[in-house]
Amino acid sequence: MARMVIVGGGIGGLAAALAVAARGHRAVVLERGEFAELGAGIQLAPNGIHALDRLGLGGEVRERGVHIDELRFMDGVTGEHVTSLPLKGAYRRRFGNPYVVVHRGELYGLLLAACRRAEGVELRAGSAVVSYRQDGATAAVRLSTGEEVAGDAVIGADGIHSAVRRQLVGDGEPRVSGITVYRTVIPMERVPVELRWNAVTWWAGPGCHFVHYAIAGGRFLNLAPSVENGATEAFAGVPARKEEVRSAFASLSEVAQRLLALGEEWKSWVLIDRDPVDVWSDGRVALLGDAAHPMLHYAAQGACQALEDAVLLGDLLDAGTEAIPGQLAAYNARRRDRTARMTRLARDSTRLWHPAGEAARARNAMLSALTATELHDRVAWMHGAREFGGTAPPHGADAARDLTDAGSA
């Protein structure tokens, strides 16, 4: 039985704790602040629900989440409905689960409650990790207080600004995308009845797009417009004036404007990610989730990939502690290509959503020509995964061919 020191108490860290505890190991989860998850909506494709099934939480998520009928693509300028990827019937039969959206806090609460119930999981708040060390038999982290917490392995699940990654990979600060996203949540009763679509809907415009979908059992509508505005410095959760949001998306059509006008108490983020790396394990230390492969949210797969990481990690930790370095290297190798492909897809998706004029018309013609089965084929590599250690095309493969795969968050 191994003792796993998990750095970070977000979705990925808690999922990892559940996965290793289910294999009979012990996990201590170190969170720098309190165990709490902020944010609004989160999308879970069937692969994410499969991972949650493995963690014993799939049923609760299916019960609480909104089961989405379609991914709806709109021309944001003309208001034309270009195409929809159906998510019922054949989709659910093919991929074995629904496409669900939940409030991020709901998912986090389920994971946290499960960790508190689980034997072998210890949760420690107020434990900021600054570095790690290892020898041939153990690994340990040092907290900002100077305390050391030791175990048989360290899993860095401490997000895009990971202290563990800083020491393990050493690739500096995250990449600033030049894109700002605005987010707010509004009560569904404020939304006109004719616009209460059971869909993840995005309106594609010149240099921008706008996504909305129901969360919290349909009680609220999550609004998330994004714009390429050349931002050069990262910030997160900064309040934004309603007029600023309306001005940034003035090119969008009347229906999109009606929905944007409903938003209050907007906050803004400049989106950041990192280039994929081949190696995120080192002996008894490995990364997970956003610490390993942070991606823009445009593939709607960030949380799903962290859950996949956790499940595969648990699957591989099935021998004595002396085998841990090899198991962590295998985990890294089996997850690397899939998550790199997701990262490239999320970046490249703006080439599908943000063109103008003739390029936008050509995009519309291409998308509208695809049948439902063809659309399902395009997302099968993402949404249909169940083993989570599959392969993907080489790093040089063109992610642009997967652009019609992308959802958005």
Protein architecture, described:
The chain has 409 residues and is an alpha+beta fold. 33% of the residues lie in helices and 26% in strands. The protein has a single domain (3-173, 274-405), classed as 3-Layer(bba) Sandwich (FAD/NAD(P)-binding domain). The protein has an eight-stranded mixed beta sheet with strand order 6-5-14-15-16-13-18-17, with helices on both faces. Strand 14 (199-205) and strand 15 form a beta hairpin. Helix 9 runs antiparallel to helix 10 (324-348). It is globular. 49% of the residues are buried. Residues 391-409 have low confidence and may be disordered.
Main sheet: strand order: 6-5-14-15-16-13-18-17
Helix content: 25-40%
Predict the CATH topology: FAD/NAD(P)-binding domain
Q: How many E-type strands?
A: 20
Poorly predicted tracts of residues:
391-409
The mean pLDDT is 93
CATH-assigned homologous superfamily? FAD/NAD(P)-binding domain
- The domain count comes to 1
| Fraction of residues in β-strands | 25-35%
Q: In CATH's first tier, which class applies?
A: Alpha Beta
What is the global morphology?
A: globular
Q: Rg to the nearest angstrom?
A: 21 Å
CATH architecture: 3-Layer(bba) Sandwich
Cα distance spanning the termini: 39 Å
